[in-house]
Amino acid sequence: MRISREAGDPDFITGYPNVPNLLCYMFFYGSLVDPDVICTIARLSDMPMVRPASITGFKMKMWGIYLALLPMPPQIPQTKSDEDKINGVLWKCTSEDQFRCLAEYETSAYTWCECDARHENEEEVKECVTFCWAGDAESRELVKGRFDVERWRRYFKASVTGKDD
């Protein structure tokens, strides 16, 4: 599956069969673990069904108040320990419009990566799509830190969804 990395590229989602009936699982972390945020950004009419999942082979840093997912170089051995897991949710994208809306929300600071995710029940979902940091992995803009989803919901969610919880 080839995914063009630029939202303005006419081949942005080339490689997905039957566009615009795009069907792929997307792995979300950070602000997009909140179903209400997915619903708003992807312009869904119903609340999305998400399932807890995790991925390995990546590391996290903070970019301001947001997380930046960084693929680990292939020469670094991958382990399956809990320390190496990135927790988040899986959601099934069903249209090109949804995909484009999510890409616009993520901005050009992020690009697409493929990943394999595991549900809590250990079922593996292959060839998921997630948002990765598009810049230099060694950028001074990125710092070690932890994303606090509850703090984000309390102080920033309303600016995205347009409603207070």
TrEMBL record:
<protein>
    <recommendedName>
        <fullName>Putative gamma-glutamylcyclotransferase</fullName>
    </recommendedName>
</protein>
<feature type="domain" description="Gamma-glutamylcyclotransferase AIG2-like">
    <location>
        <begin position="26"/>
        <end position="141"/>
    </location>
</feature>
<dbReference type="InterPro" id="IPR036568">
    <property type="entry name" value="GGCT-like_sf"/>
</dbReference>
<dbReference type="GO" id="GO:0016740">
    <property type="term" value="F:transferase activity"/>
</dbReference>
<dbReference type="InterPro" id="IPR013024">
    <property type="entry name" value="GGCT-like"/>
</dbReference>
<keyword id="KW-0808">Transferase</keyword>
<dbReference type="Pfam" id="PF06094">
    <property type="entry name" value="GGACT"/>
</dbReference>
<dbReference type="InterPro" id="IPR009288">
    <property type="entry name" value="AIG2-like_dom"/>
</dbReference>
<comment type="similarity">
    <text>Belongs to the gamma-glutamylcyclotransferase family.</text>
</comment>
<dbReference type="InterPro" id="IPR045038">
    <property type="entry name" value="AIG2-like"/>
</dbReference>
